[in-house]
Design goal:
With 277 residues, this protein is of the alpha/beta class. The chain contains 10 helices and 13 strands. The chain has one domain: Spore Coat Polysaccharide Biosynthesis Protein SpsA, Chain A (Alpha-Beta Complex). The radius of gyration is 18 Å and the shape is globular. The structure holds 1-O-phosphono-alpha-D-glucopyranose.
Length: 277
C-alpha cells in the first residue's frame, strides 16, 4: 500500500482536440502517441509514480479507445503470446494490474472547471490530483505529481504547478500572482485565466497538474462562466485562495505542450533521443 495522502487522480479527457484534426476526428487526442505510448499513459504512469492507483477519467463522446487501452485485449495477447513481440504489452499490462480505472462522461463541454466538477462522482470527499494529459512532463529524479504530493503532505491545501513562460505567451495559460514563501513555492494572491500579456499579473503560468481539496467542487458549482464563456478552474481556485490558501509550485523538470503541434513534435524528438540513450 502506498502512503500517499492522495489516492485518486482525475483525467479530464472530454475535449475535442481540434488542433489535431483530422487525426482526432475518430481518435481521442489523449491517445495520440509520443513514440509508442499514448499521452494519457504517460499521465497514468506519473500518477502511479506519485503513489496514486485510482484513476478517474472524465470522457465524452468518441473516447472509447481510452477505456479499451486500459483494459486487457485477450485476442491480441493470445496472438502475440510466445512470440518476440510479447514484451511490447508488458508495461501496459502491469499498469492495468496496478490501477483501477473508472469513467464518467461530460455531456456538454463547458470548460475545465465543469469537467472537474463532473468528476466529483468518481472522487467523492477527498483531496485528489488532476493531470491534463496533453501537458507531458519529463524529469530526472521524481515526477511532477510526486513533487506536488510531497508539498501537499506539508501544507494540506490545493496546489497548482507553474512554470515561467515568455510574457507574450500568457494568453495561453492561467497565470498566477503571489508571494514566494519558500524556494519555488508561492502563496497565491491572484489568478487570471489566459490574460493578454499587458494584463498578466506575472509570467508564472499554470501547467496541467493540480492537487485539489474537495471543497473545490462546491466552489466550482458556484463559479460563473469566465474566459471564453466556460467555467474555469482558475476562477474557482482564486475563490479558494481568498477563502483559505492555495499554493503554486514551480516544479522541477521539463514540460511539453502536446496540445500543440510544435510541442508534440518537440516531445517526440526529445523522447526519441532519450530512448536512444
Ligand atoms: C487549461 C487551463 C489553464 C492552464 C492550462 C495548462 O487550459 O484552463 O489555466 O494554464 O490548461 O495546460 P487549456 O490548455 O485546456 O486551454
Amino acid at each position: 500500500m502506498s502512503n500517499s495522502p492522495i489516492r485518486k487522480c482525475l483525467f479530464p479527457a472530454a475535449g475535442y482536440g481540434t488542433r489535431f484534426l483530422p487525426a482526432t476526428k475518430a481518435t481521442p487526442k489523449e491517445m495520440l502517441p509520443i513514440l509508442t505510448k499514448p499521452l494519457i499513459q504517460y499521465g497514468v504512469e506519473e500518477a502511479v509514480e506519485a503513489g496514486i492507483t485510482t484513476m478517474a477519467v472524465v470522457t465524452g463522446r468518441g473516447k472509447r479507445a481510452i477505456e479499451d487501452h486500459f483494459d486487457i485485449s485477450y485476442e491480441l495477447e493470445q496472438q502475440i503470446k510466445g512470440t518476440s513481440k510479447e514484451h511490447l504489452l508488458t508495461e501496459i499490462r502491469s499498469l492495468i494490474n496496478k490501477c483501477t480505472f473508472s469513467y464518467t462522461r461530460q455531456v456538454e463541454m463547458k470548460g475545465l472547471g465543469h469537467a472537474i466538477l463532473t468528476g466529483e462522482t468518481l472522487i467523492g470527499n477527498e483531496p485528489f490530483a488532476v493531470i491534463l494529459a496533453d501537458d507531458l512532463c519529463d524529469h530526472n529524479s521524481s515526477g511532477v505529481l510526486q513533487q506536488m504530493v510531497e508539498l501537499y503532505k506539508k501544507h494540506q491545501c490545493s496546489i497548482v504547478a507553474i512554470e515561467e513562460v515568455p510574457k507574450e505567451e500568457t494568453y495561453k495559460y492561467g497565470v498566477i500572482d503571489g508571494k514566494e514563501i519558500e524556494d519555488g513555492v508561492f502563496m497565491i494572491s491572484d489568478m487570471v485565466e489566459k490574460p493578454d500579456p499587458q494584463d498578466a499579473p506575472s509570467n508564472l503560468a499554470i501547467i496541467g497538474r493540480y492537487i485539489l481539496t474537495p471543497d473545490i467542487f462546491g466552489i466550482i458549482s458556484e463559479t460563473k462562466p469566465g474566459k471564453g464563456g466556460e467555467i474555469q478552474i482558475t476562477d474557482a481556485l482564486l475563490t479558494q485562495a481568498k477563502q483559505g490558501k492555495v499554493l503554486a509550485y514551480r516544479f522541477k523538470g521539463k514540460r511539453f505542450d502536446c496540445g500543440s503541434v510544435d510541442g508534440f513534435v518537440e516531445a517526440t524528438n526529445f523522447f526519441y533521443n532519450k530512448s536512444k540513450g
